[in-house]
Amino acid sequence: MSGIGLKLRRIGLLAVSALAFLQPPAHAQLTIEITGAGANRIPVAIADFGGEASASRVVTSVVRGDLERSGVFKMIDTGGVAMTETSNPAYPEWKSRGADALAAGSIGSSDDGRQEARFRLYDVNKQAVLGGSAFVTSKAMLRAAGHRIADMIYEKLTGEPGVFSTRVAYVLRVSAVRYELHISDADGQNAQVALISKEPIISPSWSPDGGRLAYVSFENKKPVVYVHSLASGKRVVIANFKGSNSAPAWSPDGRKLAVVLSKDGGSQIFTVNADGSGAQRLTNSNAIDTEPNFSPDGQFVYFTSDRGGSPQIYRVGVGGGEAQRVSFEGSYNVTPRLSPDGKSMAFISRRDGGFRLSVMDLASRQVQVLTDSHKDESPTFSPNGRMILIATEMGGRGVLSAVSIDGRIKQRLSITAGDVREPAWGPFNK
């Protein structure tokens, strides 16, 4: 069976049993393992932060962990040296350790009883301050403060925004009769359960503002598309037409969603307003059209179709019209996902009998296969466009894998509590 048919069949298995935001046990946290790193990593030292000891340890650990897992940095051993943002760096000593950059900071108490995180970043070779910041936080938000500092360091040293403060949604298969929709920090920690189901959950999709998740459930014994507000826990029905309702994807402005409906017979792509009104048919074919994804400029919807005899990727204007074929290399290409800058397209292609993550430069049409696994699915870009997160299989278990767009940096994310599937990387925090 084709990937299209399999996806549609899985939709019919859904049966939601509960909806809540619950803190799962510790064993349900994602564990990240680095399996590949960049060729030219930046050597950086993160001194032990000063200030209140327990808070400083948390922040220091998060900053170091974020930068190391990125695969972009080579972490320099600090030898337990503690520094604050007001310390005078011993530049020759740090240079002898091999550091090109040095960060130091502290966690202190503000006048109103809250905590304040401060840090400063130094260029060791030029013996100069590169930047720094100070902001109010709290004990409950210390990890978030660490992610924020790591984002600032990443951007200052690479010229691109960091994604450590973003979130990831994914589905955890705990058992044959328990599936959970999780939302975690980008490092896999602080996971919370948004949805509990007796049957599989598929197709989570983040709104552009990061405040809502669209997904498919089967509470009424049929697939229905919902939008779930993460702040309130409330949700609304977006698509509940006759037949199948599936594969929600947000428009860049958050006003519409593309969905796959079979209300008129075969599976075709429609757009609906974010409140579920105004359904408009976008594709017209006798084939299965599925897996829509808006281009970042909102002008096109990319999708998978077998209208040419085998699953391939097409695009159509948001106003409808003639669909244009996009993929030509190989006989099986599915699940198009556009990079945030609109220059690249991630997708799953069949190669040597396996299903592998590939990326296409849309200007040149050049295709690069990024993985050597055999059961890749559900690609999703990081909001800075540098990494692609997928679901795959390792040792008979479902895991997540992240790979850079050049294929050099690789991570594996797994949970001992079950199989992990259906990832969706959230946007930058607004």
TrEMBL record:
Pfam families, per the entry: PD40 (PF07676), TolB_N (PF04052)
Listed GO biological process terms: cell division; protein import
Signal peptide residue numbers: 1-28
Protein biosynthesis as UniProt keyword: no
Family: Belongs to the TolB family.
Subunit structure, as described in the record: The Tol-Pal system is composed of five core proteins: the inner membrane proteins TolA, TolQ and TolR, the periplasmic protein TolB and the outer membrane protein Pal. They form a network linking the inner and outer membranes and the peptidoglycan layer.
Name assigned to this protein: Tol-Pal system protein TolB
Organism: Candidatus Accumulibacter phosphatis
